[in-house]
Write a structure and sequence with these properties.
This protein is an alpha+beta fold. The protein contains five helices and 16 strands.
Length: 303
């Protein structure tokens, strides 16, 4: 995401003045400042609820200023969490999927996946008033993450929590970023059958889950970092890229890889004694663990 010279005025009052900000895929950024300095206004500009007076909002190099909030691919969690009080936890998480017109047979499994991600399955049938503040925040996060947002924004997410719960939720958000983070790669459908779909990407060809899309259709492929496997060079159905950064994280090592078209891909690999370790600047070959781990979405084209 790139914010280019964003300025916003409320009458004669300048709320935001010439903000320049570039955020790369996978980054976790905090906006700090006193009350009234424009933090929430900036988030609303990015999400499309407020139209800036001057400047440009770009996602992946494309302007999105003309797009309404529901077409920008932004998830936002407000300080109040904004859960529907008459809906259960499960219904709250499903709401966004229904609003995005997901097929009914895909909604229930997706809701269960998201509830598992935020450790809220045991509370799926409860109403928001029956939850703690931290539990409500987890539900709000699950509702946002369910629709695969390009950007997740939290508006003062910890302000209503006590000190101990605030620390727990800070750790939780970081865990979600690490576990949920996907890599989005543009591609083109080559063909497929009931067992899977072949997709051409800049770094090679991969086998993805079955999709009812026509040959030649432009798509976006998403794979979680832990579902990518480093492979020996020369195997079929693999991608190649250049390691830009190596990040050891406990028993895992995260490779920030750039494929041929400049798309950034993150690979999570176990730091086993026998596993080859790559250095920044080296070439790495990798592939999805299975076709089922590769999800395909039609490429969005601005109107």
């Amino acid at each position: 995401m790139h914010l280019d010279a964003i300025t916003h005025r409320f009458g004669d009052f300048v709320a935001i003045n010439d903000v320049q900000l570039a955020i790369n895929a996978g980054e976790l950024i905090a906006l700090l400042g006193p009350s009234g300095c424009g933090k929430s206004t900036l988030l609303r500009i990015v999400s499309g609820f407020v139209r800036q007076t001057q400047g440009r909002v770009l996602f992946d190099g494309e302007r999105v200023d003309h797009l309404p909030p529901n077409r920008r691919g932004v998830g936002i969690v407000f300080q109040s969490y904004a859960l529907f009080p008459h809906m259960t936890v499960r219904q709250n998480v499903a709401y966004g999927l229904e609003a995005h017109h997901w097929p009914r047979d895909r909604i229930a499994p997706r809701v269960e996946e998201m509830l598992g991600l935020v450790h809220m399955r045991p509370y799926a049938d409860r109403l928001p008033r029956q939850l703690s503040g931290g539990q409500q925040q987890r539900v709000a996060l699950a509702r946002c993450l369910a629709v695969d947002p390009k950007i997740l924004m939290l508006d003062e997410p910890f302000g209503a929590l006590d000190k101990n719960l605030r620390l727990d939720m800070q750790i939780e958000v970081k865990r979600l970023q690490r576990e949920y983070g996907i890599n989005l790669m543009p591609g083109r459908i080559l063909g497929g059958d009931a067992s899977g779909t072949d997709v051409a990407l800049a770094g090679g060809v991969v086998r993805a889950c079955p999709a009812s899309l026509e040959r030649g259709a432009n798509v976006v492929v998403s794979v979680r970092p832990e579902q990518l496997r480093v492979q020996a060079e020369g195997r079929c159905g693999q991608l190649a890229g250049t390691v830009k950064m190596v990040m050891p994280l406990g028993p895992q090592v995260i490779y920030d890889v750039e494929i041929a078209d400049g798309t950034a891909v993150k690979i999570s690999q176990s730091r086993d004694a026998g596993a080859r370790q790559f250095e920044s600047g080296s070439t790495i070959h990798f592939a999805p663990a299975s076709a089922a781990s590769c999800r395909i979405f039609p490429a969005q084209t601005p109107s």
